[in-house]
Amino acid sequence: MTKALLTINELSCHFGSFCAVDKISFELIPGECFALLGSSGCGKTTALRAIAGLETPSHGTIQHQEQIFFDQQTNLAPNLRNTGFIFQDYAIFPHLSIQDNITFGIKDASQKKAHLERLLKLLGLEEHAKKMPHQVSGGQLQRVAIARTLAIKPSLVLMDEPFSNLDATLARRLRNEIRQIFKAEGVSSILVTHNQEEAFDFADRMAVMEQGKILQIGTPEDLYQQPQTAQIASFFGHCQIISGQAQGKTATTAIGDVPLQQERQGHCQILLRPENMRIMPNAESSLSIKEVRFLGARKEVSIQTPDNEIFVNVSARSQIKVGDSISITAIDPCPSF
Ligand SMILES: Nc1ncnc2c1ncn2[C@@H]1O[C@H](COP(=O)(O)OP(=O)(O)OP(=O)(O)O)[C@@H](O)[C@H]1O
């Protein structure tokens, strides 16, 4: 197995008696893009700051290859951690030109010119090198922040909501570019975000955090397809949890029989997603369409069952309308808890 670049073991951070990060553990392999996903206040930033050395943990260890960043005896200074940090607000020096911002951290003066030329090209900033920060756009400033971080040749880059000040299209483009650059340069990264789409798009693997704890770690696909709990499932878009009585790999529910991913017996909760179900006209059914929403590429219909409102995706051209009697079929085995 590949040796870890970074190993976080039972890391905790307290502010007074308040536990902001609660015994989190994970590993990062070299070159991996990793994301910490969680709602506001769950402790993601604190965990990232602790890895950077900007927050002192109360417990646990942080190890970078053979070097201890933090344990009960050691607390390595941030500038000795070979780690770059990219913030939401870019943290660009306003009084320095774009090129001076980029080369700020390069200690060897003889290396500055070559590094600068390479980074300006890599980030598409050649024509802006001599400008001042107020003369370029938000997206370009974020590129400057990335170039400045790469200039110190970090093996690890930590990013705290770096795209949240950018419009959605630019954020997506920059995210993909950064991922490609990190992969090409062999840089490992941790992205902190509350945006599920951003984490899915960027990360090879990710951790879901809530109230200081990591709830599950896996590839985006694992977390979406096989969430371990209903709480984790609820992070990932629209879903509904319905009750059922399981018998092996099938459960009887208010919408009929539903196939399950795992074998179970007795009462269970089943995760339904809008894209995982089909509806069919059925005059005999007691279920009917409550609402139809046109969303451009598709329509989403809602159906009231005795216990829940269930959402199902249909084609944008579907002629289904409010009041139509329908039956629902789950087309793939569903996660259950
Ligand atoms: N310096 C501090 N002193 C006291 N409490 C703090 C401090 N920094 C953070 N906290 C608290 O710790 C908890 C975790 O904060 P943190 O900033 O890590 O969350 P987050 O998941 O990054 O949230 P957001 O996405 O809103 O930035 C929050 O309840 C926050 O109020």
Secondary-structure arrangement, i.e. CATH architecture of the largest domain:
3-Layer(aba) Sandwich
List cofactors, ions and other ligands.
adenosine-5'-triphosphate
Low-confidence stretches: none
Superfamily at the CATH H level of the largest domain? P-loop containing nucleotide triphosphate hydrolases
Our Rg estimate from Cα atoms comes to 24 Å
- The SSE string, one letter per element, is EEEHEEEHHHEHEHEEHHEEEEEEE
Query: What is the tally of beta strands?
Result: 17
Spatial strand arrangement across the major sheet: 6-7-8-3-9-10
Would you tell me the structural class of the helices and strands? Answer: alpha/beta
Largest sheet: 6 strands, mixed
Average pLDDT metric: 91
CATH topology of the largest domain: Rossmann fold
Cα shape: globular
- Binned, the helix content reads 10-25%
Quick structural overview:
The protein has 337 residues and is α/β, with parallel strands linked by helices. It has helices at residues 44-52, 98-103, 112-122, 138-151, 168-185, 196-202, 220-225, 230-233, and strands spanning 6-15, 18-28, 33-38, 59-64, 67-70, 83-86, 156-160, 188-193, 205-210, 213-218, 240-253, 256-272, 277-281, 289-294, 298-304, 309-315, 326-330.
